[in-house]
Design a protein that fits this description.
Rossmann fold, UDP-galactose 4-epimerase, domain 1, 2 domains, two-stranded parallel ribbon, about 40% helix, binds NADP nicotinamide-adenine-dinucleotide phosphate, binds guanosine-5'-diphosphate-alpha-D-mannose
Length: about 325
């Protein structure tokens, strides 16, 4: 039975990845910050909480990571833990860097010293591109220009992962994943904020949704498809970095159109307000990824389209609130 160690198990991707690996017969060990106090709602919704071996620890604690990897001896390590909210990274850049940059380096050290036969996956991000390019087919060779403390911390972790591969001949690779969403998405991210807000409006629990820059455009895919790509990257002979995206970009206007259509509203303008507190000091305006390499070498393709994704999220939020 192959063994996997996942950090960020309680997060959106950690939950879907746990479900996927369990279905493939893996023994899954998941890092959690607090066995008593952590919120396990996603693992509970997917009915996998009791099937994952929950291991207490923090990505910032190198000694603990070394002990865990020595005990578990995993075949695969997936580093998904992070301070993931871009907006919050300007308010707490130090904690963001401690977790995302130094935390990843500490895990790489533990991997090198205590589990060097394992394969290592790093959760890199399309935020590293910064949305500064005039071509919107961003791929593995495109230059990087992070525009937030979050993206800058992730850039360090990305290059450290490459460096451990090149310096120590380890199987370490990064997935440069574009935005991926699901009914398990955190409520602070714009997709879920909108689908939850729309469901509240439908049920009379709220009158409007307050947003920031609604002209932003993203390449949004379904998280369930993206964890499959993470697993495929670690099944290759050779460690390589891959862009994972849909190749299609949409604006927040498109997202609002589909979400409101689900509750029978065609003109959403009276239901949206804008608040400067949701604007970012430097915004990533548009992202669109070119996933040719993943298609060619991993045989990976996204299955769920944007419209289906938004509808799925509105339906689930309605179901939750009705309960
Ligand atoms: P998420 O839902 O926000 O989950 C983040 C996870 O990290 C949570 O389980 C959280 O645990 C854990 N965590 C935070 N700080 C930690 C620490 N100091 N020690 C241990 N665990 C810690 O994020 P996600 O959307 O699943 O994303 C997974 C990874 O992919 C992240 O690294 C993210 O940066 C990256 N990524 C995401 C996307 C996307 O669109 N979703 C795109 C590109 C890259 P708690 O429950 O204790 O808070
Ligand atoms: N969160 C949020 N809330 N975003 C808003 C709002 C709002 O009220 N109004 C407009 N936006 C805009 C943001 O300014 C941004 O341009 C876009 O919506 C998407 O914001 P988020 O959903 O917060 O996601 P993100 O793109 O910043 O970051 C996510 O994707 C990255 C991959 O590109 C996160 O999951 C990151 O962890 C991930 O790396």
């Amino acid at each position: 039975m192959p063994k996997a160690f996942i950090t960020g198990t309680t997060g959106q991707d950690g939950a879907y990845l746990s479900e996927l690996l369990l279905s493939k017969g893996y023994e899954v060990h998941g890092l959690v910050r607090d066995k008593e106090k952590s919120d396990f709602w996603r693992l509970v919704e997917l009915d996998v909480k009791d099937k994952v071996n929950l291991v207490e620890g923090d990505l910032t604690d190198e000694e603990r990571l070394k002990n865990i990897l020595t005990d578990i001896k995993p075949d695969e390590i997936y580093n998904l833990a992070a301070q993931t909210f871009v907006g919050a990274s300007w308010h707490d850049p130090v904690a963001t860097a401690d977790i995302n940059a130094m935390g990843t380096l500490k895990l790489l050290e533990a991997f090198k010293n205590c589990a060097s036969n394992a394969k290592f996956y790093q959760a890199s991000t399309s935020e590293m591109y910064g949305g500064i390019h005039t071509s919107f087919a961003l791929d593995e060779a495109t230059s990087l220009h992070p525009r937030s403390p979050y993206a800058t911390s992730k850039l360090f972790a990305h290059w450290m992962t490459v460096n451990y591969r090149e310096s120590f001949d380890l199987f370490s690779c990064s997935g440069i994943l574009f935005n991926h969403e699901s009914p398990l998405r955190g409520i602070e991210f714009v997709t879920r904020k909108i689908t939850d807000g729309v469901a509240r409006i439908k049920l009379g629990l709220s009158k409007s949704i307050s947003l920031g820059n609604i002209d932003a455009k993203r390449d949004w895919g379904f998280a369930g498809d993206y964890v499959e790509a993470m697993w495929l990257m670690l099944q290759q002979e050779k460690p390589e970095d891959f862009v994972i995206s849909t190749g299609v970009t949409h604006s927040i206007h498109d997202l609002l159109d589909i979400a409101f259509e689900e509750i029978g509203i065609n003109d959403w303008s009276n239901y949206i307000t804008q608040d400067p507190k949701f604007m970012r000091p430097s915004e990533v305006k548009e992202l669109c990824g070119k996933n040719e390499k993943a298609k060619r070498l991993l045989g990976w393709e996204p299955k769920v389209e944007f419209k289906e994704l938004v509808k799925m999220m509105v339906e689930k939020d309605l179901e939750r609130l009705e309960k």
